[in-house]
Amino acid sequence: MNSFGSRFRFTTFGESHGPAIGCVVDGVPPRLALTEAEIQADLDRRRPGQSKFTTQRQEPDQVKILSGVFEGMTTGHPILLLIENVDQRSKDYSEIAQKFRPGHADLTYWLKYGIRDYRGGGRSSARETASRVAAGAIARKVLGAGVAIRGALVQMGPHAIDRARWDWTEVARNPFFCPDPVAAAAWEGYLSAVRKAGSSCGAVIELVAEGVPAGLGEPVYGKLDAEIAAALMGINAVKGVEIGAGFAAAALAGEDNADEMFPGNDGLVHFGSNHAGGILGGISTGQPIVARFAVKPTSSILSPRRTLDTQGQPTEIATRGRHDPCVGIRAVPVGEAMLAIVLADQLLRARGQTPDGIGPPALPRAGSPGA
């Protein structure tokens, strides 16, 4: 299962300390303008080593398009993207070659395959997510400029933002993708202390997709929210996903949770709220799609932890090397990419099934379905 998607689909390859990583993207419509620079812009937002708050591994993540694009346009054939690894330090992992790191996939990979790449985790490393971001950049081209997908870090460890101070322009002004400038300033001291202690912390990321047409989603088993949840849960270190109000909806009364509908002067359906996160019955409503996912603390920490070696003997381990004290920071562009990929896939599927039936959330007309 190294592939994801149906009509728009991609397959990733490569290991954290191998010569290269990359992906093959298939199902891309022809005649879309696409350049390496456009993909690079998204990769640069995920790239490691850009601040003291992320891993200091210096990877330029320079992408190369090797197929599927001719004279700046997609051809409709598979697009091969290659990203070379240039700053591997495999010797950092020699001491743990025979030990399983608690919280990592070391043990489960060993139990499943009988072999594991201990150099940074191989395929289980978050290094693989660079390929997803590259594929997500192409998915954005499929969606078009009318769909805007943005992400923000809304909680670091136990410290959440104040939503009254939410400002999207602040996201690019701090190293945390934080929309609250006051919270971002406080997080600097908090994460510096976590890093100096050799520990780590978790985070919550919120994604918002605006301009998504109504009618995306394929019930019963291809629901839009279900596929978004699967895409986000598939990101490294993610332990929880919620759509719209999410778990908070359980505490709401039915009257509060129901998103009331009103006719607008523009002939479209208008909503009084968006607890559903832009999805009803697995189908997009035309409202902004809102999703959040929780990322656990980075498992690579300096504090000694009890574990087992490959012979089943008890031992201790302290993980050296270069690691993110909060892996949730660089998960923001990864989450955006996976959301874009799901939406692009669903858009292509909707065009095939109902070529004239997707668009703005228009009110039913006499004689039309639902009228």
Please tally the helical runs, counting DSSP H or I stretches of 4 or more residues: 7
Mean pLDDT level? 92
Order of helices and strands: EEEHEEEEHHEEHEHEHEEEEEEEH
The parts where pLDDT drops under 50 for at least 5 residues are 367-371
Give the proportion of residues in helices: 10-25%
User: Whole-number radius of gyration?
Assistant: 22 Å
Number of strands: 18
Beginning-to-end CA distance, first to last residue: 43 Å
Read across the widest sheet, the strand sequence of neighbours is 1-2-3-7-4
Q: Could you tell me the strand content as a percent range? A: 15-25%
Major sheet: 5 strands, antiparallel
Multimeric organization: single chain
Structural class: alpha+beta
Global shape: globular
